[in-house]
Amino acid sequence: MNEQYDQCIHIVDDDEALRDSLVWLLESSGHRVRTYASSEDFLAVCDDVTPGCVLLDVRMPGMSGLELFELLRARGCTLPIIFITGHGDVPMAVEALKRGAHDFIEKPFGDREVLRLIEAALRTEREQREQWRHRAEIERRIGDLTQREHEVLRLILAGKLNKQIADQLGISIKTVEVHRARVMEKMEAGSLAELVQNVVRVAPSLLQD
């Protein structure tokens, strides 16, 4: 299945002719597309939109693209945003890049150029989602540990040997070995290095002694 199918390109622009042109280009390239004639239209549905990316005109009647961008970021929306700019808007687009926009493209632009930027934005969004899924899975695994397994995990990450863990927790070395094996199994870690890498991404505080 084409990985494009689980993403959508959201075009926010008051220029109907440009929207129609982009829809034709993107759909003919196998992308899903939705269009919005104003910032307000997109803002009304942004909490429930299909993941993907946003093509956003800088200047529009009513709420500008930059204002929409700031509101989306304030709401925690992390969809990659590509600004559509006129020549005089480039400095504003550059400022938006500094604030976290994905990229910008200046009108008039070619089909190949806009497709290249969109593919990059969609790739970024897929990678972000994969990172979030992985983080959620690691959090779930940590949450499945018993209190004792959690204590053993902290000490493993602190570099303690089994004997040191046994002494600190007041249990036998054999019991530590059992807990250690269960921790590795529940965390689905094939090595200590993998265990540490996973915890660093999600719960770095567990690395503190």
Features:
single chain; Rossmann fold; Arc Repressor Mutant, subunit A; 2 domains
Overview of the structural elements:
InterPro entries: CheY-like_superfamily, Sig_transdc_resp-reg_C-effctor, Sig_transdc_resp-reg_receiver, Tscrpt_reg_LuxR_C, WH-like_DNA-bd_sf. It holds the Pfam family Response_reg. GO terms for molecular function: DNA binding. It is a single chain. With 209 residues, this protein is of the alpha/beta class. It has 2 domains: 128 residues, Rossmann fold, CATH 3.40.50; 64 residues, Arc Repressor Mutant, subunit A. 56% of the residues lie in helices and 12% in strands. It contains 9 helices and 5 strands. It has a 5-stranded parallel beta sheet with strand order 2-1-3-4-5, with helices on both faces. β3, α3 and β4 form a beta-alpha-beta unit. α6 packs across α8 and α7 crosses α8. The longest helix has 33 residues. It is elongated. The chain starts with 7 loop residues before the first strand and ends in a 7-residue tail after the last helix. The model has no long low-confidence stretch (mean pLDDT 89).
